[in-house]
């Protein structure tokens, strides 16, 4: 029985990791004041480029790098539309998702069913892996999982303990104020949106290079949307985003293991769970916050210096 | 006096449809307090936003110490020692005071060391008599405190030129005195202070030199010993202005609005009104003065049915109307001119007829069972526009293209057309020029003659003294003081207002 639980928990971590990367990416973007509903599309682009490059060059790290670049590139379209042209952010993001879905399907056509020769494999961490229970749950994974363990506290420290992090919070909260004190609002917004896009790309690549090393059309299966919801659930805080990502990962993992155990729950019901859960969590968060979300103040509002 | 530190030459700034600055020259010397005087819309803020690097001028140049500079952003202006306190504060509300100030530092360390920094700030502030609590969150501060944070930040950046855009608009008389003393200290330390205002007495109290703007042009530059009220007025307005309205007295009427010990929460869920009571009678204007943020919005919204009370009763002509819906309040004859005319009073994207019919479209005259009667609506709109002399190219224009004065006229027209028994007006002339202000005031006085009860909430004491029959002060969600306007004393009202501003000593400035 404990074995069962341990393996479910371990699977929780791997299932949560792609969501975590994407959520961290989206979190950075929203902290800079831009809503990005293109996460699903960016993840797919990341997944497919990562996959193609690692198959062609037989190098997963190269694939990962390509996924980051591709994620950043495609998100820079969103950045240009929303920051420079001040287009409607929701529309631009939705367009990005549609575009990314289509493009990834097209690019990946020839690669369906091909295996990756060297996916990111499980590398138990010496010493740490021997800690009872925890070792199996946390330290028996591939390297991308370990990187995400580091990324979360680093991002948190960056946001709350450093000067550039303070500026990141300021440009999303009140760009006019940041501008008035000499922050390069436009440049910074570009930087963070593109960086966020790169992380979303990594989230996608994790799916095709580690979680289920292969390419399938639409293989993100809604994880991008979960990441968007998760950022709200996390109240734009990376630590909470991690908790949230593992909650969703847990539901994923549980569903899979229950099936293996022969417990008969409709797969439709299980698939519904993450979304139901999102709604419940949002209701709870709203209530605790007295009906007000502590969203970055300028989220979704284009900034124009000469506007009144 | 030597050479000027800043020389602005032939500055032109055009916005779509307006020339906000039309070939303006301005010299600023270190160590002087320079007032920039002009009516609303005369281009003062625009000119200073150009100097602060926020707006790019259409033409003209800026010389600092004789060298031409191009400011691409506020960053460049700051690098040249120029800092500006904008009319709408540029502070990040959810952050602390220290975070807001350290954010502006150009060569700060990568890691934030807030503890040590807060300590330094307190000492730095004390040097200029600016006391702030560095670990307080900005949204918790009073307006006066926020202003101090802005000033402190600019000084901390090492700026030599401090621009303040209408700094006294939000302050009590006492806070104003304190600010003036601080500005004097800064000028004595060798800074240049540029001070935007449209109030003559402030120019007289503070300025070493004054530049007067009208319609985007400079109409005069006066030295300290040339500053004289009559002259300033003529330069500023181009004519003499009315200082009194003729008011016919209206006999005591029946009570229209009675608020009895009402409590309500503000948007942050904190107490906004604390057992507030007041009475307004037929044909009377009750003027409520007070520093913004002391329950003005909450009070108006409670009366309009937009905000729920948590305790107490609101009675309209004897009937208990506590917590009725806005529609029911409208039906009972409550008119409402909110402070935010673009956000709440009107719908900027809709055209003029749509806006005019917003509150009465259910009336059988304007709509059948399903469809609107557009002919009637059009007729009514044409009539209102003519009657209230709203200047518009066509009824099909979206309302956002109108000037502030015309917008306010339209809003008043709509509310008055509904023949209100009670009219609540909040900051009715904010942002309007002298002409539009007079028009709005005349409308309110006419309404009073028609025996409407009027509650006037304003931050402008002059306005209240000109219009109101009775005067009270809103302070911390209560009405304190109740005077007939003949017996009211500005000093005393100022003191009552000061009681509502946190962290201000109550000693009156001896000037
Ligand atoms: N950002 C802007 N966009 C369009 N028009 C503006 C803007 N800022 C100011 N104006 C217009 O320029 C003129 C001068 O405005 P402003 O400089 O704010 O005057 P003041 O500060 O003297 O009251 C006004 O007619 C105003 O409507
Ligand atoms: Mg102004």
What is the topological layout?
The complex is a heterodimer of chains A (308) and B (511).
Chain A lengths: L1 H30 L7 H19 L2 H25 L4 H20 L25 H5 L4 H19 L1 H11 L1 H6 L4 H27 L11 H11 L4 H23 L6 H22 L20
Chain B lengths: L5 E10 L2 E11 L4 E6 L5 H8 L7 E6 L2 E3 L4 H6 L2 E4 L11 H6 L11 H14 L15 H14 L4 E5 L7 H16 L3 E6 L2 H7 L2 E6 L2 E7 L5 H9 L17 E11 L5 E11 L3 E5 L6 H9 L4 E8 L2 E2 L5 H6 L2 E4 L3 H5 L6 H6 L16 H14 L16 H14 L4 E5 L7 H16 L3 E5 L3 H7 L2 E6 L2 E7 L5 H9 L13
Parallel strand pairs in B: 3-8, 3-9, 6-7, 7-8, 13-18, 13-19, 16-17, 17-18
Antiparallel strand pairs in B: 1-2, 1-4, 4-5, 9-10, 11-12, 11-14, 14-15, 19-20
Helix pairs in contact in B: 14-15
Annotation keywords:
heterodimer; A: 308 residues; mainly alpha; ABC transporter involved in vitamin B12 uptake, BtuC; 12 helices; B: 511 residues; alpha/beta; Rossmann fold; 6-stranded mixed β-sheet; 17 helices; 20 strands; globular; disordered C terminus; binds adenosine-5'-diphosphate; binds magnesium ion
Strand content of chain A: under 5%
Q: Major β-sheet of chain B, in short?
A: 6 strands, mixed
> What is the fourth-level CATH superfamily of the largest domain in chain B?
P-loop containing nucleotide triphosphate hydrolases
Beginning-to-end CA distance, first to last residue of chain B: 28 Å
Helix segment count of chain B? 17
CATH topology (fold) name of the largest domain in chain B:
Rossmann fold
Largest sheet, spatial ordering of strands of chain B? 6-7-8-3-9-10
Separation of the first and last Cα atoms of chain A: 64 Å
What characteristic shape of chain A results from the CA principal axes?
A: globular
Compute the CA-based radius of gyration of chain B: 24 Å
Largest contact between chains: A-B, 25 and 33 residues
Oligomeric state of this protein: heterodimer
Integer tally of domains of chain B: 2
Mean pLDDT of chain B: 87
- Tell me which CATH architecture of the largest domain in chain B applies here: 3-Layer(aba) Sandwich
The count of DSSP E runs of length 2 or more, i.e. the number of strands of chain A, is 0
State the name of the first-level CATH class of chain A.
Answer: Mainly Alpha
Residues in β-strands, percent of chain B: 25-35%
Helix content of chain A: over 70%
Q: Can you give the helix content of chain B as a percent range?
A: 25-40%
- Low-confidence regions of chain B: 500-511
């Amino acid at each position: 029985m404990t074995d069962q639980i341990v393996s479910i928990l371990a699977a929780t971590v791997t299932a949560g990791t792609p969501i975590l990367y994407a959520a961290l990416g989206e979190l950075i973007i929203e902290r800079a004041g831009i809503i990005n509903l293109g996460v699903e599309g960016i993840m797919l682009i990341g997944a497919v480029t990562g996959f193609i490059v690692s198959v062609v060059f037989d190098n997963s790290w190269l694939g990962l790098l390509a996924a980051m670049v591709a994620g950043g590139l495609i998100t820079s379209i969103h950045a240009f539309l929303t920051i420079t042209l001040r287009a409607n952010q929701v529309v631009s993001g939705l367009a990005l998702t549609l575009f990314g879905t289509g493009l990834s399907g097209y690019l990946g056509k020839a690669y369906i069913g091909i295996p990756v020769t060297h996916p990111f494999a499980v590398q138990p961490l010496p010493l740490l892996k021997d800690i009872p229970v925890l070792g199996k749950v946390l330290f028996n994974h591939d390297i991308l999982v370990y990187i995400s363990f580091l990324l979360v506290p680093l991002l948190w420290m960056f946001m709350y303990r450093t000067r550039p992090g303070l500026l990141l919070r300021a440009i999303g909260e009140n760009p006019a104020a940041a501008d008035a004190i000499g922050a390069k609002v436009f440049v910074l917004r570009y930087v963070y949106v593109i960086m966020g896009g790169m992380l979303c790309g990594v989230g996608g690549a994790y799916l095709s290079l580690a979680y289920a090393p292969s390419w399938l059309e639409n293989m993100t299966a809604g994880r991008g949307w979960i990441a968007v919801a998760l950022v709200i659930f996390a109240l734009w805080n990376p630590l909470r985003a991690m908790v949230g990502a593992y909650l969703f990962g847990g539901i994923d993992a549980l569903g899979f293991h229950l099936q293996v155990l022969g417990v008969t729950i409709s797969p439709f019901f299980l698939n519904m769970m993450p979304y139901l859960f999102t709604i419940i969590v949002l209701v709870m968060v709203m209530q605790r916050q007295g009906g007000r979300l502590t969203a970055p103040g300028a989220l979704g509002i284009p900034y124009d210096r000469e506007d009144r | 006096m030597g050479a000027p530190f800043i020389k602005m030459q032939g500055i032109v700034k055009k916005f779509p449809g307006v020339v906000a600055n039309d070939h303006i020259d301005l010299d600023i010397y270190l160590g002087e307090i320079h007032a920039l005087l002009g009516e609303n819309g005369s281009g003062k803020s625009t000119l200073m936003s150009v100097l602060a690097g926020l707006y790019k001028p259409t033409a003209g140049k800026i010389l600092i110490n004789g060298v031409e500079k191009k400011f691409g952003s506020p960053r460049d202006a700051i690098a040249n020692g120029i800092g500006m306190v904008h009319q709408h504060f540029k502070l990040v509300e959810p952050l602390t005071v220290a975070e807001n100030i350290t954010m502006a530092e150009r060569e700060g360390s990568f890691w934030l060391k807030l503890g040590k920094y807060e300590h330094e700030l307190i000492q730095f502030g004390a040097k200029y008599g600016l006391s702030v609590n560095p670990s307080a969150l900005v949204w918790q501060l009073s307006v006066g405190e926020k202003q101090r944070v802005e000033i402190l930040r600019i000084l901390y950046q090492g700026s030599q030129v401090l621009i303040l855009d209408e700094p006294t608009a939000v302050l009590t008389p006492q806070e104003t005195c304190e600010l003036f003393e601080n500005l004097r200290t800064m000028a004595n330390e060798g800074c240049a202070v540029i001070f935007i205002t449209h109030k003559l007495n402030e120019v007289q109290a503070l300025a070493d030199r004054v530049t007067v703007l009208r319609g985007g042009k400079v109409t005069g530059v006066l030295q300290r010993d040339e500053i004289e009220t009559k002259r300033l007025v003529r330069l500023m307005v181009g004519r003499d202005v009315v200082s009194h309205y003729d008011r016919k007295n209206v006999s005591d009427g029946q009570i229209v609005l009675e608020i009895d010990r009402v409590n309500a929460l503000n948007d942050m869920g904190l107490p906004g009104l604390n057992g507030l009571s007041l009475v307004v009678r037929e044909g009377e204007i009750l003027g409520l003065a007070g520093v913004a943020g002391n329950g003005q919005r909450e009070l108006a919204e409670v009366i309009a049915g937009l905000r729920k009370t948590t305790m107490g009763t609101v009675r309209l002509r004897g009937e208990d109307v506590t917590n009725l819906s806005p529609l029911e309040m409208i039906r009972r004859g409550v008119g409402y001119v909110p402070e935010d005319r673009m956000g709440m009073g009107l719908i900027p994207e809709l055209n003029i007829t749509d806006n005019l019919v917003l509150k009465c479209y259910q009336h059988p005259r304007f709509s059948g069972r399903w469809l609107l009667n557009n002919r009637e609506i059009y007729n009514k709109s044409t009539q209102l526009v003519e009657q209230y002399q709203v200047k518009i190219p066509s009824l099909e224009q979206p309302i956002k293209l109108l000037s502030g004065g015309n917008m306010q006229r339209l809003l008043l027209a709509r509310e008055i057309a509904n023949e209100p028994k009670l009219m609540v007006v909040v900051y009715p002339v904010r942002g309007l020029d002298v002409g539009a202000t007079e028009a709005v005031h005349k409308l309110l006085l006419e309404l009073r003659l028609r025996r409407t009860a009027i509650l006037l909430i304003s931050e402008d004491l002059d306005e209240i003294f000109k219009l109101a029959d009775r005067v009270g002060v809103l302070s911390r969600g209560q009405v304190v003081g109740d005077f007939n306007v003949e017996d009211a004393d500005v000093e005393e009202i100022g003191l009552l207002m000061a009681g509502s501003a946190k962290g201000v000593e109550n000693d009156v400035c001896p000037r």
